[in-house]
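2024-03-11 09:14:02 INFO queue: dequeued item Lysophospholipase L2, len=325
2024-03-11 09:14:02 INFO validating residues
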Amino acid sequence: MSINAAESCTQEADFEYQIKYPIAKFWKNREQGFSLGKDHNKLYWVSLTSPAHDKAILMVNGRTESVWRYQELFFDLFKQGFDIYSFDHRGQGMSDRLLNDPHMGHVENFDDYIDDMDLIVKQFNFNRYSRRFILAHSMGGAISTRYIQTHASHPFHAIAVSAPMYDIKMPTPLRAIAKPLCKKLTQWRNQPHYAIGQSSYERTPFEDNPLSHCQTRFEWSADLFDNMSEIQMGGPTSQWVYQAIKGAEKCVRNAEKVNIPLLLIQPSLDTVVENRAQNQFIANLSKHRQDAILLPIPDAKHEVLVERDEQRNQALDAIFGFFDQ
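2024-03-11 09:14:37 INFO prediction written
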């Protein structure tokens, strides 16, 4: 059955009413808790379920994010009959922070994210659903890709990745030195430090933002982070950058190890992650599978799932159609 997101999902014109009333009521009914991840770090998770549902989505978010900012998306997915599961990565959101400075985005090893995801997947026993999917964004796309590549017996039937972090967008002169430089900076310093040019949490004005053209959704999300200091996140450490580049490279290098259908939603105006790496990933995967799909979204910035209706609806239509195959 074809789903039209313009008719069935939240639209900008009624966003403020929806987020204050139906979505707020929906969000209050969530189950939430903490699970012990690798190294005994507490991972915050949420689930939104109905006994009438027989299909599920695990939503894996990006760097700096929290499940709290995806209330609209969860609401729209739930209305289409999906149970929703999601969690905050170690070091961000409501999960345990790893450093004394809670604003530093840090990870010791990119594989720690993958181990945490494996724990969450096992906790929720997705095998009880007839259809099981991953929807992942940005860093979450890289984590989910590496999870699929390293866990061949995973329970999922398909994966959709939005603007996956298969490489970080950066100026050409910096690209050649970023990885070795961040590695050296990490080795030289006894304690983690912000990467060059990075700092603690600060609200980004809408006019300067690289994430979305939709001011309504952007300002709601920015207000959420301003009002919830516990989910605020600043820039990454040099160690995070080094580990993220390594993890992203492994995604592309091991593309053929993805063993389920994959939809890659690519915002054409992305300035956060590198679209050329996504193209290479799809080219590598397509040598081994015929069900690897690249969908460019014209005039979309990095966060297409919180973009203007035109771009967001196009992405949601593709996701619903892909998961309905």
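2024-03-11 09:14:37 INFO annotate: The chain has one domain: 5-323.
2024-03-11 09:14:38 INFO item closed
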